[in-house]
From TrEMBL:
Pfam families: F-box-like. This is F-box domain-containing protein. SUPFAM superfamilies: F-box domain (SSF81383). The lineage of its organism: Eukaryota, Viridiplantae, Streptophyta, Embryophyta, Tracheophyta. It comes from Arachis hypogaea. GO terms for cellular component: SCF ubiquitin ligase complex.
Length: 278
């Protein structure tokens, strides 16, 4: 009985301490220097930042600050230029922005707008690849058109991971994401491989086949030369294989008359079948 009373007294003391400290902690948070609070919020990911904004009025007002969302926009989409950014108002600067400023939430709106737009664009690329690869193979012309769409929209690495590095979509779409990371974002090696592994697509394979014009020997033209390589997405991310990446980058040029990308287990259509479509 004495033990129970002792435990109860200690519990009551602890609860009293917590109830006493709670207003003090809330007061400390409310009186944090603005630059310190901004620094704390700027270290968070978007999801955590949104969660923090639900904690109190203080954090809700601070978490929509342009100084935070501008850094998030620039970090997620490094390929954006100044023409894509919101125009600054002469009546308010980043250092004197307040909740009453008409441009106070412009960077946050830009972030949310681009996030939605890129999701829609990624879905359109997925539908395009599906339409062009009904037989599980994709001609290099369509493949490069899909890559150009990503370039024009200026996808960021997070967008590629979110929308293209999905094990449930066609492996050709995964390959397009890898190609874009290597050639446009400059992301390769361990960083890219780690992302592929986290998405569970590093071991997915594709087959790249290309045909070169047959050589002329003693006035006779030999048959077109056929080449093929089976590679994993992880291999492409780590090895600078000019025989594969070079063919994908250049497409049909000079002596290469056709390039076809297909999933594992696909048998390519006969070369003569699509000669008239090139």
């Amino acid at each position: 009985m004495k033990v129970e009373n002792g435990d109860r007294r200690r519990t009551d003391s602890f609860l009293s301490f917590c109830s006493f400290q709670q207003p003090k902690l809330a007061s400390i948070i409310n009186y944090l220097p603005h630059d310190v609070a901004i620094k704390i919020a700027s270290l968070l990911q978007v999801r955590d930042l949104c969660a923090l904004s639900c904690c109190s009025t203080f954090w809700r007002e601070l978490c929509v600050s342009d100084s935070i969302w501008e850094s998030l926009v620039r970090k997620r989409w490094p390929l954006l230029t100044s023409f894509d950014f919101p125009s600054s108002s002469s009546s308010s600067t980043s250092s004197s922005s307040s909740a009453n400023s008409p441009n106070f939430k412009k960077w946050r709106k830009l972030y949310l707008k681009r996030h939605v737009e890129l999701g829609v664009r990624a879905r359109s690329v997925e539908k395009f690849v599906e339409a062009c690869s009904r037989s599980e193979s994709l001609e290099v012309r369509d493949y490069l058109n899909a890559v150009e769409t990503l370039i024009a929209t200026r996808f960021g690495f997070e967008d590629v991971q979110r929308f293209l590095f999905n094990p449930k979509v066609n492996v050709l779409l995964n390959l397009i994401g890898v190609h874009y990371c290597l050639t446009c974002l400059g992301i390769q090696g361990d960083e890219l491989v780690e992302s592929l592994r986290a998405s569970e697509i590093s071991d997915r394979h594709v087959c790249i086949k290309w045909w070169k014009v047959g050589r002329w020997i003693y006035g006779f033209r030999r048959r077109d030369e056929s080449h093929s390589r089976w590679v994993s997405l992880a291999y492409l991310a780590t090895e600078d294989d000019e025989h594969v990446l070079g063919v994908l980058r250049r497409g049909t040029i000079h002596e290469v008359v056709r390039v076809q990308i297909s999933a594992v287990g696909h048998t390519s259509t006969p070369w003569s079948y699509k000669t008239d479509q090139l």
